[in-house]
């Protein structure tokens, strides 16, 4: 049984009820990205013309400026708002940045090594979840909903493929910066920083808060057919942050996940490796079992070091 699974979370102190806190964040998530969207469209129009702005919305990759337009749209309407929202919320709404954003580096540096190892050896488990997710279908009455989700995911995939069409190492480093680092910081501040903290304060149960936040994190991406592996990632990130008391362990894990996908895609595009990043049949059952057992051991070690517990404290 895991005891005391969280570090430095204060009891509910603000006058704002957690439900209202969530409603405020939800409002921000609608309002601020919409502003960012119109700003991005304006920037694209000024730089490349109205036709390119239209082509960006239609993912018309035959237009040579669409790739740059998609990056502008991503950064201005998504990445920046997702960073601004938790910072504004923690600083000006609840006025408790240390608790809600957890920007401290006061944790053993070896946790970074353990996070790296966990993310490295979790690949087979993620593959199992991806393959399981691909087999899931909605009930017949919801067939139209499933078809809509597939269409939306295909559109999103088209945009991702256009943005990650990397011609040189400069393109790769830019993608690592935006998709890897900036996205990791923004999403972790929002989900493992603010939202997970709100649910911890509301439910009084760290485990429930981590899982609820992980599900919300996955749902936010609106990609039903990669829902399960993203929930698992959210759970990993959630425990990393809860046990260490620092957002940076979650950011590091999130960065490793995103940046490695970018680098592998780049290497595959330039035929430096033969491993197709879209291939989900790389490992065998032995690798699946080893991966699960090994990452559970590493998580146990991580927890005990982060919480300064004896290594064999059950």
From TrEMBL:
The chain crosses the membrane at residues 20-50, 70-94, 106-126, 172-190, 202-221, 227-244, 251-270, 282-302. One of its GO terms (molecular function) is endopeptidase activity. InterPro entries: Rce1/LyrA-like_dom (IPR003675). GO terms for biological process: CAAX-box protein maturation. Keywords: Coiled coil, Membrane, Transmembrane, Transmembrane helix. The keyword Ion transport does not apply. Residues 172-259 form the CAAX prenyl protease 2/Lysostaphin resistance protein A-like domain. Pfam families: Rce1-like (PF02517). Residues 142-169 form a coiled coil. The keyword Coiled coil applies. This is CAAX prenyl protease 2/Lysostaphin resistance protein A-like domain-containing protein. It comes from Mucilaginibacter lappiensis.
